[in-house]
Design brief:
There is one protein chain. This protein has 249 residues and is mostly beta strands. The chain is built from three helices and ten strands. The longest helix is centred in the N-terminal third of the chain and has 21 residues. The relative contact order is 0.18.
Length: 249
């Protein structure tokens, strides 16, 4: 599988390089341009599976994130960072606490969620209305496991007091992906990407219970992380108006 991945990425790099030369956009044939800054906001869903065909939108859990890229206006390579939040499952059950004869009904929840941070290198050979790209990334994931017990008449303050972080964890993370930006208006684009991810395990809550004193007990086990990711969002180029004013002068 690793050899197939390396071969696929290598083939893609060679193909895009020769394509850019064919379209007159080889990096050596142009003078270096000004730096272009790109900012994106997106929704994403990390899932199990190793190919695009394994991705499903039905019943998917969605998170959110932002990305920032910097590249030469006429260059092919961009670099930047991705930051994202992804919920990956909530355990929920209706329970009754017997506190010395006093019965209290409530809802017990345990939330599995993680934060992701990546450094990204992107190959994007075209600067027109349609901008396909391939990218590689490396970074880490940090899990935040949260539990909460709330009653039907609990105030927001009560819920916050009854919520607690049970566990923190972190692991390595790297992968590759491909996608495109599609121009909607001057400087604004629709963004879509599929990525294949390799990652270490993270501890997740697999069972949760509560005793008569209100103490929450959790079972936490190392769990394999999702291996595919899809994202869709909006991207825009920053500083276009300033660049136009400078060009006019």
């Amino acid at each position: 599988m690793k050899m197939q991945t390396i071969a696929a990425v290598g083939g893609l790099l060679i193909t895009t390089t020769f394509s850019s030369i064919a379209f007159g956009q080889a990096p050596d044939a142009q003078e270096p341009g000004k730096k272009q800054k790109q900012f994106s906001a997106f929704a994403l869903s990390d899932q199990s599976g190793t190919t695009v065909q394994d991705v499903t939108l039905e019943g998917a859990t969605w998170g959110a994130g932002v990305q920032w890229r910097k590249k030469s206006e006429k260059g092919m390579l961009a670099s930047g960072i991705d930051l994202a939040y992804q919920p990956i499952g909530t355990l929920e059950s209706e329970v009754t606490i017997d506190d010395n004869g006093t019965l209290t009904d409530g809802t017990l929840r345990a939330r599995n969620q993680y934060l992701t941070a990546h450094y990204v290198l992107r190959l994007s050979p075209f600067n027109g209305w349609f901008q396909p790209f391939a990218e590689g990334f490396a970074g880490g994931r940090a899990s935040v496991l949260n539990t909460e017990f709330s009653t039907a008449d609990a105030t927001l303050q009560d819920k916050l007091q009854d919520a607690g972080v049970q566990e923190w964890g972190a692991t390595w993370n790297y992968g590759w992906g491909f996608g495109c930006r599609l121009r909607l208006a001057e400087g604004f684009y629709a963004l879509a990407r599929y990525a294949n991810i390799s990652s270490g395990e993270l501890d997740l809550v697999t069972d949760v219970s509560i005793d008569g004193n209100g103490n929450v007990n959790t079972t936490i086990e190392p769990t394999a992380m999702p291996t595919s990711s899809v994202l869709a969002g909006i991207s825009w180029d920053m500083g276009l108006k300033k660049a136009k004013r400078q060009a006019e002068r």
